[in-house]
Amino acid sequence: MKRWILCLGLIFATVSTRCAGAQPGSELRFCIPSDPRTWNPLLVEDDASETIRYLTGGVLVRLNRQTQQLEPELATAWKVSRAGNAISFTLRRNVRFSDGSAFTARDVAYTIAQLMDPALHSPTGDAFRAAPGKVITRIADPYQITILFPAPVVGLAKLFDQVAILSATSPEHERAVLGPYQLADYRGGSFVLLRRNPNYWKHDSAGRPLPYIQSVRLDIEQNRDIELLRLLRGEIDLIGSLSPESYDRLSAKAPGMAVDAGVSLDSEQMWFNQAPSAPIAEYKKAWFRSTNFRRAVSESIHRDDIIRIVFHGHARPAVSWISPANRAWFDSKLAPHAFDRSEALRLLAHDGFTLVNGVLHDRAGHAVEFSLVTNAGNTPRERMAAMIQQDLAAIGIRVHVVTLDFSSLIERITRSLNYEACLLGLVNDDLDPNAQMNVWLSSGENHQWNPGEKKPATAWEAEIDRLMRAQAASLDAKKRKQDVDRVQEIVWKQEPFIYLVDKDALMAVSPNLHNVSPVALRPQVYWNIDWLWLSNSGSRRP
Amino acid sequence: MKTMRAVALVFLAAVLAASMAANWIAPASYARQFRDQPDAAPSAQHLLGTDDLGRDRFSRLLYGTRISLLLAPAAALMSTVLAGAIGGAAGFAGGWIEVCVMAGTDLFLSLPWLFLLITVRACLPLNVSPVVSVAITFVLLGCLGWAAAARVVCADVRSFRNSDFVLLARASGAGGARLLMRHLVPNLAPVLAAQFWISIPVFILTEANLGILGLGVAEPLPSWGSLLRELESFSGYSAQPWLFAPLLLLVLTVSSFQIVLHNEEVAG
Amino acid sequence: MTSGGSADKPGMADLALSLAGGEPRPARAVVRKLARHLARILVVVLLGGFLGATLVRVAPGYGVDSEELDSRLSAESLRAARRAAAPQEGLFPFYLHFCERLLHGDLGESRLLHMPVRQLVAERFPETAKSVGLGLALAWTAGLGLATAAVMTAGGVDLLAGLLASVLVCIPAAVLALLFIMVQAPARLAIGLILFPKVFQFARNLLADAAARPHVLAARARGAAGVGVFLRHVLPVAGPQLLALGGISVSMAFAAAIPVEALCDLPGIGQLAWQAAMGRDLALLVDLTMIVTLLTLLANSAADLAGLGRP
Predict the structure, then answer these.
(1) Rounded to two decimals, what is the model's pTM?
(2) Domains with residue ranges and CATH for chain B
């Protein structure tokens, strides 16, 4: 027995020593949650592919994640036409792709042609599609190009932050890149290795080539606990998104590594199914269509408790559909809904609901109960659901919490519509409200509470339609802001989505990583990858 | 060994009694959230502390034990009956029937039954209560857990079928039904009993695994599976050793089952 | 309890003996039996693939993709995404085309990872083979070692080893894997500890059964030493069954690898299977179901051939 324990101990010791590996050269290491679903930068949808696009793709203009302003990259200058349907770029000279081929206006024209190909169904391309029609590119000379769209596109220049330029001529296709890194190796389910692009055009003020870090290794790791453990062991250098528990644990163990960059663009919300075709009881649909009912539910949810218990204080009560992190578009006049049970009961009484022996009943005598679906395995959401369950029990509403795997959940909320209420979060990357047209237009497929309405079901939805279309057609920034503010106010008042919290951007950064300026917008830590450098790793300090 | 068996039986009886008396013993409802004390350490008020929503862990453990200890044996009984019927019939019939049934059993062991669980969960009304939901989960486990046991039963029936005493009974003119009821079933009883006892911990663990994968019982009902989910965030282990209480209880309970089973075997 | 013997099933026993060279049989008969066996495996594997495909297609969430929630997508792109996620082809035509491609060595393409399944399986299999190999080595070293000690010595070792097996059988695979990571040990070793109780219990029963045979008792009565009796009399009797148990344990190790790899992000077949299940990747799931069916059948056939007759 002793010998057996000794053998087992020896096996553990041998393998542990190999795993605990030392920090490699000037290699930045962090984790991505899954294998990238595509290497084509025009088809990016998932987080892993987005990370690779950001690190390898060269763009004409880049949104500075800190100032939220556009900065020149491959384009040294740009100009949007007065009509808003054309943009001209002056391109940087002497730039080469990673394979050595020269970068010219032809590559931009090729990229736009690919991007706007209707058969490609690129989400990035769809953001440019304000109206049907062909996109035309005019090349004045190898470094001057104008792109003409069939209709005005609001926030046109900012959309190019997502467009990685492809080579028109390289036999390497998507592998030929203009960004700081290029793909060096990939092992399915294990890692993606990026090496510095030898032809990257940027240099620092001393003339040294950028980026400082030689390579980036992206380990594929879905388990967030393992990711944290690896950070503490020094096996990775950063975590882009931490859970509140992990943040607190890290703060306790290594206070300098945990970073709260303030409120992010991501929110958590619940909504009721108001679709007429939904296979649920009519009397329930009547509750869900009642503004008073929705507001009563909203005001019975103790958001501060949710923030304290579920998010450990790293969130804020949500106000409406635009987060305060979006400085340009957030309507600062609005305040979060207060927790007020008596007001909730007053609103319910106004609609004929009565509380009998602690159970709420509607006018027809139906006990008020509904199911709340959310995705299984998302611990914060499961906890929020349990808290909502208890909060609503206090006003006599019985909530059945149902956790479903993500595919089943999407099937219910987009196809069968066989659900009553849903708790989900929206991940938001785009600052411009125009990116959410499909959510707010009543005809939109992502108009979750009642998707694809043939005509607006309510007057306030018709008003939102009008305002969203007006802001999408206007190039007057002030007028757009007014329209979007008005939409925020309507949503605040009607609560088709009951916004619960806006989450903070929590992340972790190794003290060996320098020049880091964490921000709330993605990619929060490495948005200035060119300038990051690692100490104790052989990379030269700038 | 007798002492150990007695201790194990007493322990099992105590656990069962405590879980049945949860309504009286538990200091709080399993669902009540003490929101001012989330993640509290053990105290006089909360013997095993509170979970991340401030719910009393000791109360949840008592109620969770009741769920798992009641439903797991029921599911085990169902799978044992199925295993006995299917494996017994195949072994008794022999020939191509046995070959087909055993091939079907192999097939059954290989299919991705996770999708059946997902499908059945999706077919249930969303407003179904957590107790009914978890009961259905166990029924499904019972329906799906027979295959491995059926192979054992089939092999044993096959050996009985060719044994001397069965041949003698046949020679004396005993018919199929009489052979089955008078000779095979009594001889299979120890095997089926063993399968029943073995299935209980297996189903408890399967429910625990389903809980970890988010397919276990619904909030706020506790089960051993949902309680074991707290062990997922293992970074907090060293700071909160009381998180291991459900695991310890599960280990002790299953070990007690094993000791009882071992003694049954020895006695058999 | 006695082990269901090969002698109970003459056909299998003949085949086993013929293969082992124990009793001469006409080669043609052996070939015919082998062919029948392989044909049965083929039919069951194909049936497994079909039933796997049916389960996946009937399950909710088939044909949906998380990208449908991307608010940037136009209505046309959304329709295209839905078409791509759920081909209009019916179940039977799908499976016929699938089998037709299979005949040409084409395992189809993963919708989730946009890669040929053949390539995915080829890339991931070595990782799983490593996990399974290490797990089996650990389980067999510990399981057989303790089983031998339990049979050869007094009741103390038997009791302790039995309790250890009981404790390990209680810990959910996922928790076991996470505990390994916590102590900085490779998570794949968890597979060994998951298998250990089963290997130990089977091996102990088989060895105990062999040790209770009359010729072993007679040898002991004549004063033969413990190790000598074990090597000369016990092990040869239990050998074929232990060999068969080895086959079954391979199949059990693959089953244990799925949760361990999925939870610990080990880039093997188990992780791939979990991803495929969550993403309803039909082609990948059908292929993996067929592979698992094949492994199960081969393991159980090996068990049948070696005369164990029980899992």
Answers:
(1) 0.83
(2) 63-267 (1.10.3720.10)
